[in-house]
Every structure is written in structure tokens, then in C-alpha cells.
């Protein structure tokens, strides 16, 4: 007996400037993963696209860890199911989300594993529980929430709970992402952050985060020029991404509403209504002036989140 489940999961951009560890947007860039579960057998992992030859092809892969998390949660709730635990797992990944660039590759992997295992087990866990496990695995909820729900999410983790509101903005916009050809792990990008920030910087971010959420929700996108500015993580991370402020300026000059670091970087993301290719080229050119090879993609907002296909 075997069961096959295919899932599509979006990449995500987190923080969006001031909303550190809280705001996230699901983007129209996807990994597709086919899971084949058998009662007995080895773990087999085949990877095409991003991460091929780089990601672990063993039980150390975070997708397998996520599957095991769901099995553990369900079997602790229903111990009589222990006997039917699935041992054999084959993953066939087709990945478009680049690794360690700030587009939520780890969140996508975690959410894919959780949602697929939950489907296998009859959807015993609801989306809130999936989000809570995902947030605990990732360490913060801002990427995993939009990967689960799609759209734009505002999330706060408190003990084991995640409080999350998801919405679709009243006005549509595009995101132009400049993707440098170097990796920056979230772990390293968090190491450069200070233990505390000046009170005035905290106040600066609180106002802008509130303005960001309301301008996105209301579709009053002219406010993004003020609302995407951050003082509590981007300035510290700037030294890891050559040309970051200049790329922001180039994006705005080419017609973007505003720009920010995507997640922990190194991708930089511009929000725009028009001139998308002009903005992308300006960002890539400015990166190249700082000896950073980069390419760009134009993405929209994914509205569905992780989905069985
Ligand atoms: N498709 C995948 N399958 C398994 N593991 C993955 C996959 N994609 C990413 N990972 C794991 O996640 C790590 C990258 O996570 P990291 O948090 O550094 O970057 P990111 O999630 O791409 O960026 P950000 O969190 O800033 O958006 C990889 O080194 C790998 O361990
Ligand atoms: N909020 C996270 C997103 C990246 O995982 C950070 O900026 O470190």
C-alpha cells in the first residue's frame, strides 16, 4: 500500500521593512513536492531545481523533520494509531524558491512537510495548529504564516500560540525582487542584530509598522514610501549586502513605491504598480556597480498558500 500526495507551497517575503518577525507576504514563486508514503521502506529524496546537490537527501532534511513532527503530534493524541505509522517516505521536489536568499525557502519546506503529513493522516490538525508547529520549527512566524494561508499576514508568537490575521490588500501591486547570486543564512543575518535598540528607533518602527499594515489593507499604496522604512534590522544587516541603500534608491528612482530587505536578505524587494522591468533592471545594475551579480523576478501576491494539487 502506498499513498501519494503532491503539494505546492509559495515562497514568502518577510518583515517588509519595519514589521520585523511579524509581517509576511506570500509570493507567486513555488516549490512543488510529491510525497510517496509507504508503511515500510527507506527515505529517498530527489531534488530538481533550487537546492539540487545542496540540500540533505536524508532524514536530516527539514521536510522529513516536519513530517515526523505531525506524526508525533497525531500519535501522541491517538496512541492506537502508532501501529500504522508510515516509515517509507519518497520526496520528489521541484524547487523554484532560491535557498537562503530571503524568499522563505525554509518556511516553504517546513510548511510543505506539515501540510502533506497532515493530509496523509486525515487532516487531524487545523491550520492554526499547523502554523504553531511551523512557527516553533522556524523560530518566528512571519514567513510560515503566509506560506500556510497565502495573502498578507500579521503574526505574533506568544508561548506556543501564534496570533495571526491574514488579509488581501484592497489594491493590487507587484513585487520586483532583485536576487543576488550569493547566499545569506538567516542564522548569520540574525547574529549581526543588536541585543537592544534605541527607544527612538523602536518608536520609529512602531509607527511605520502600523502605517504599513493599514496602507496595505486599505490599498493606499502611496504611503509605502514612508511605511517601508526600518531602523531596527536593515541598518545592521546592510554591511552584509553591498549596495543595499543604493539599490533602494535606484528602485524608487525607477518608479517603485518603496523597497525593503526581503526577509533576512540578501534579496531586496521593491513594491510597484508599473515600470516593473525598468525597476528590476535598475536594481540589478546598481547591484553590479557594487560587484554583486544579481537577477530579478517580478512576483505577485499568492492568495492560496500551501495547497494539495
Ligand atoms: N526545499 C527545501 N528542502 C529542505 N530544506 C530546505 C529547503 N529549502 C530550504 N531548506 C533549508 O532551509 C535553509 C535556508 O533557510 P534560511 O532561513 O537560511 O533562508 P530562507 O528561508 O531562504 O530565507 P528567509 O528566511 O530570509 O526568507 C537551507 O539551508 C535548508 O537547510
Ligand atoms: N524575520 C526574519 C525573517 C527571515 O527568516 C528575519 O528577518 O530574521
Automatic annotation (TrEMBL):
Tell me a Gene Ontology molecular-function term this record carries.
Answer: ATP binding
Q: Which residues form the GHMP kinase C-terminal domain?
A: 226-287
**Enzyme nomenclature, EC number:** 2.7.1.39
Principal subcellular localisation of the protein: cytoplasm
Compartments (UniProt record): Cytoplasm
Q: Which UniProt keywords apply?
A: Amino-acid biosynthesis, ATP-binding, Cytoplasm, Kinase, Nucleotide-binding, Threonine biosynthesis, Transferase
PROSITE patterns given for it?
Answer: GHMP_KINASES_ATP (PS00627)
Under catalytic activity, the entry for this protein gives: L-homoserine + ATP = O-phospho-L-homoserine + ADP + H(+)
Q: Indicate what this protein is called per its UniProt record.
A: Homoserine kinase
- Species per Swiss-Prot/TrEMBL record: Methylomusa anaerophila
**Name of encoding gene:** thrB
Amino acid at each position: 500500500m502506498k499513498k501519494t500526495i503532491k503539494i505546492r507551497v509559495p515562497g514568502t517575503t518577510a518583515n517588509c521593512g519595519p514589521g520585523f518577525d511579524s509581517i509576511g507576504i506570500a509570493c507567486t514563486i513555488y516549490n512543488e513536492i510529491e510525497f510517496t508514503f509507504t508503511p515500510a521502506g527507506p527515505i529517498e529524496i530527489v531534488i530538481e531545481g533550487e537546492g539540487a546537490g545542496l540540500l540533505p537527501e536524508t532524514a536530516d532534511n527539514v521536510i522529513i523533520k516536519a513530517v515526523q513532527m505531525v506524526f508525533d503530534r497525531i500519535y501522541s493524541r491517538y496512541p492506537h494509531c502508532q501501529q500504522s505509522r508510515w516509515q517509507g517516505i519518497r520526496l520528489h521536489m521541484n524547487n523554484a524558491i532560491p535557498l537562503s536568499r530571503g524568499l522563505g525557502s525554509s518556511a516553504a519546506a517546513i510548511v510543505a512537510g506539515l501540510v502533506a503529513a497532515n493530509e496523509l493522516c486525515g487532516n487531524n490538525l487545523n491550520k492554526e495548529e499547523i502554523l504553531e508547529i511551523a512557527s516553533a520549527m522556524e523560530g518566528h512566524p512571519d514567513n510560515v504564516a503566509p506560506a500556510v494561508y497565502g495573502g498578507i499576514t500579521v503574526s505574533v508568537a506568544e508561548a506556543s500560540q501564534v496570533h495571526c490575521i491574514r488579509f488581501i490588500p484592497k489594491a493590487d501591486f507587484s513585487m520586483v525582487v532583485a536576487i543576488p547570486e550569493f547566499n545569506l543564512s538567516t542564522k548569520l543575518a540574525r547574529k549581526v542584530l543588536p541585543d537592544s535598540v534605541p527607544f527612538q528607533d523602536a518608536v520609529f518602527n512602531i509607527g511605520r509598522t502600523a502605517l504599513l499594515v493599514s496602507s496595505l489593507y486599505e490599498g493606499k499604496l502611496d504611503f509605502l514610501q514612508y511605511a517601508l522604512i526600518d531602523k531596527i534590522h536593515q541598518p545592521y544587516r546592510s554591511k552584509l549586502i553591498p549596495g543595499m541603500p543604493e539599490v533602494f534608491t535606484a528602485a524608487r528612482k525607477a518608479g517603485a513605491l518603496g523597497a525593503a530587505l526581503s526577509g533576512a536578505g540578501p534579496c531586496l524587494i521593491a513594491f510597484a504598480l508599473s515600470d516593473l522591468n525598468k525597476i528590476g533592471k535598475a536594481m540589478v545594475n546598481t547591484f553590479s556597480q557594487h560587484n554583486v551579480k544579481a537577477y530579478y523576478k517580478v512576483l505577485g501576491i499568492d492568495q492560496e498558500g500551501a495547497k494539495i494539487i
